[in-house]
């Protein structure tokens, strides 16, 4: 009989990745498929739920076909998914809206209303910081500006819930995704009545919350036929991508902090109880019935360096194409030519607003300390350092929340860069451990599925399969340089919050003026 493997499916913001694992963590197949984000308005970031469903099914089908060539089959499927997505569906389960992503900023005013009236109370009950990313404020936006859609909405669901409805005909949501909605009471593990009242909905408008280990083995026959799956395949609902990345990188002990930077970034650690920061700086999301993850995401990770490449150095990509070089390698070389601290140039990397620890979507990017001496080399390095200092700001919030940090574990694309890792070690003033773990969220989803189905005794057993690849230690001269700059960075970030809001109001007014002018000219409808 063919050996049974477990598929870990990660439904990300820009792509779905599916990997097949055996019980020793060996990867037997890997597929990925991207999909677009639509932005009909600068503040809107939407996706087509059917495009995501097709990506999930296509990558899974390809993996099933790949492992069949090795004489194996997929017996279990576990899911990871990006947090904070939301869409409305009608009585037949068909979408009334696109799926709004975490990056959608349309509900800025609703967010400010909640903050002003009862934000801390809602945060302490739900563990989700009050921010436009949260489905709570997005539903409030629809209630105010799209009343016809809100009236027709039978359910408000995430992308993963949409998939499960199509596969099983049931509206269910795992505790992890629910706990990132701003609508779920993390202490009672049920929908929160005060948050529901704010959103103008009832429990009947939402899915039934279930454990992240919830599983079913009665897949729709059409799905089995489409994907070449056996009808006995067990599907585990899984959790969110953030908490599962901790599992996949082996960061399962309180004080072992997972650090990742891709397009954005995040700092997370596991605890054994729900906790909400009195200052509202860090989130608290469910991993399992007994484990919770606290930490904070930053909006601007690698995207800030990409802005540097595309906007400040627009000729770089073409030059690199002709030379056969990678633009990011060139940027790294430029940064390496400058001493740590970028000759006193600081960069606040808030190009797309910011989440932790400030949770202010109005924040903007700032170069501070700029002189005639500074050139593109210093600017490139300060952008990279600014991203890492913002990650450090989240670390400070964790420490002030009482977390005794024992170890930093780096994962994500930045962990392949020696310069990024050295910056982290120097700014964090700590060794940085890089586990040999590939696609942590997929691995975490698969491992949780194995645990849920009894193939593994506990999540902790994953430690045995994640060797340490490298360990980066701080350089004391660099540490000294950054000690002079970190307090200035943190003070600037805090003290500019009101000015960020003021300039954001001006920018919105100018953008509205441009739209009005364009409409008068007949350029847009």
Automatic annotation (TrEMBL):
One of its GO terms (biological process) is carbohydrate metabolic process. It comes from the Bacteria. Residues 258-452 form the Carbohydrate kinase FGGY C-terminal domain. GO terms for molecular function: kinase activity; phosphotransferase activity, alcohol group as acceptor. It holds the Pfam family FGGY_C. SUPFAM superfamilies: Actin-like ATPase domain. Residues 7-248 form the Carbohydrate kinase FGGY N-terminal domain. Keywords: Kinase, Transferase. Belongs to the FGGY kinase family. This is Gluconate kinase. It comes from Marinococcus halophilus.
